[in-house]
Structures are given as structure tokens and as C-alpha cells.
Automatic annotation (TrEMBL):
<feature type="region of interest" description="Disordered">
    <location>
        <begin position="1"/>
        <end position="29"/>
    </location>
</feature>
<dbReference type="InterPro" id="IPR032710">
    <property type="entry name" value="NTF2-like_dom_sf"/>
</dbReference>
<feature type="domain" description="YchJ-like middle NTF2-like">
    <location>
        <begin position="48"/>
        <end position="145"/>
    </location>
</feature>
<dbReference type="Pfam" id="PF17775">
    <property type="entry name" value="YchJ_M-like"/>
</dbReference>
<dbReference type="InterPro" id="IPR048469">
    <property type="entry name" value="YchJ-like_M"/>
</dbReference>
<protein>
    <submittedName>
        <fullName>SEC-C motif-containing protein</fullName>
    </submittedName>
</protein>
Amino acid sequence: MNAETPRAARPADCPCGGAAPNQKAGTRAPRYADCCGRFIDGAAVPATALELMRSRYTAYVLGIEAYLRSTWAPETCPADLDVDPAAEGAPHWLGLAIKRHEQRDETHAIVEFVARYKTGGRAFRLHETSRFTRGADDRWRYVDGDVSPS
Ligand SMILES: [Zn+2]
């Protein structure tokens, strides 16, 4: 048995669409390799919570659990994380919009976003304000978030 997980296919255009606060409608998506790909595939480290948030969205789209775990604060990372996009009932992610990115101080930031997805033939919006902290290793990590009814 080969214990290695198969490498998920990488898209040409970045699934996050380069989402940013005040992004103009119709902006072309950046190349995956120039956007979240450099973080997910380990060539670079996100400099801001916003870059980390986008790359985590993209990791959900691609089902890259290892990246989600490595960018999650150990205190809040769930043991039973399952992000296989091929699993039954798994959300089909449709797009990301960033409403707000605020760096509160050197080690704390929030990102408010809306992620659209479909599951069971119905469309949903996840509107969340996420909290991020930066560790002693200078890396931003997701802590938790408040979901807004929308
Ligand atoms: Zn991206």
C-alpha cells in the first residue's frame, strides 16, 4: 500500500477569485499558482489573515485537509475534519466575497466573508466573521468565527 494521499488536481484559475474588500465586479481570477497555490503548495507563507483566509477557502474547494489543519489554531482545530469534495452531501463551493479585513494588532485580525455553495441541489450562503491569530512563528492561523444569518 502506498500511504501517500493522491495529490488533488490543481486548477489554472484560483477558486478564490482573488477576492478582496471593494473588489470590482467582473475582475478576472488570478492564476492559482500566483494566488493561493504558492501557500497551499508550500512555496510561500501568507503575509496577512486575508491571504490566509482566501487560501483556506481554496483548500476547501480542492479538499486539501492537510493545509486546513496546518493553518488552524491547534486549540480549535476539529479532530473530525472531513473536507472531501467528493463525499456525499459535501458542499460544492461556488465563490468567495470578502466584506472586511481588519488587522487589530500585530497578532490579531478578522476577516468577514460570504462563501456561496450548493448542496443537495440548493444554494446557500455562508456569511462568517472569522478570527485569526499570528503565532510566534509569524504564521497566521484561523481560530474560529461567528456565522451571521443571511
Ligand atoms: Zn486564491
